[in-house]
Amino acid sequence: MENKNAVLLVDDDPALLNAVGEMLRADYEVSSAKSGSDALELLRAGYLPDIILLDIDMPGLNGFETLALLRQMEDMQDVPVIYLTGLKQTENEVKGINTGAADYIIKPFVRESLLARLRFRLLLLRSRMIIRSSTSRARLVISLFSRSDHHSPGSPLTKSPILSATSTTRLSCG
After folding, report:
1. What is the pLDDT of residues 54-66, one digit of tens each?
2. Per-domain residue ranges for the chain?
3. What are the residues whose beta carbons fall under 8 Å from the beta carbon of 143, sequence distance 6 or more?
């Protein structure tokens, strides 16, 4: 079985939750919440989605308030949030992006556009995770290397033709 990305849909409209959920289920593991409060409760219980589609205009906590509260949760700092909303005013879109949303999609939306933006945000998230992991591993190697005597003239590493050549050769750019 393939490992599907987890998408959390948050909207007070059950018809939209159903329609978008059905549209995404073939490619994603979909969960839904009918309010900002329900979404936060689900997240506090340990559910960790890869991405969140969040309505803004909801009773109780609106989408802006929900995003602000979920960004205070340690595990939710890097999870992309895409607003999926009926609010068409430019000031709402600007506020949404300025408060930390990854994207802003206005309902009614074009299916292909939503899917493309979802794929792009998940690809960007994966790329960022790979870079962080590679950076962490590189720092560890540098730290271990700098604490050891592997760089002393008699060590096996400096006897390596590749390492000894790179330690004495300067690269020029230009």
Report:
1. 999 999 999 999 9
2. 5-129
3. none
The answer to whether domain 5-129 has CATH 3.40.225.10 is: no
Instruction: Express each pLDDT in 40-97 by its tens digit.
Output: 999 999 999 999 999 999 999 999 999 999 999 999 998 999 999 999 999 999 999 9
By 3-state DSSP, what share of the chain in percent is helix, strand and coil, each rounded to 5?
A: 50, 15, 35
For the chain, count helices (H), then strands (E).
7, 5
Give the full edge-to-edge strand order of the sheet including 103-106. 28-33, 5-10, 51-54, 81-85, 103-106
Cα–Cα distance for residue pair 74/166, rounded to 1 Å: 42
* pTM of the model as a whole: 0.75
Residue type, 116: A
